[in-house]
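so my prof wants the structure for this chain in the tokens format not the other one, which i didnt know existed until like an hour ago. anyway here's the sequence
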Amino acid sequence: MDIKTEKLHLIERLIQLQDATIVSRVNAFLQNALEERDELLENSINKGVEQSKSNQVHDHENVMSEMRAKYGS
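here's what i got, hopefully its the right format
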């Protein structure tokens, strides 16, 4: 089953729910998941900025040249 179909099934199940507590818990779960994802993204960006400041970076052309030499074009 593809993701679009899975989401549609989930929406159908949510529409049929009559228990406000379950709806509230699902909503809280989704909110926490999104916040966690945002936090992970922010941490990743901050790590990249710190690596850049401490000159732990590689020139794109050099990396691509090394990859082509190692794995071919």
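also thought this was worth mentioning. Residues 7 and 13 are 10 Å apart (CA to CA).
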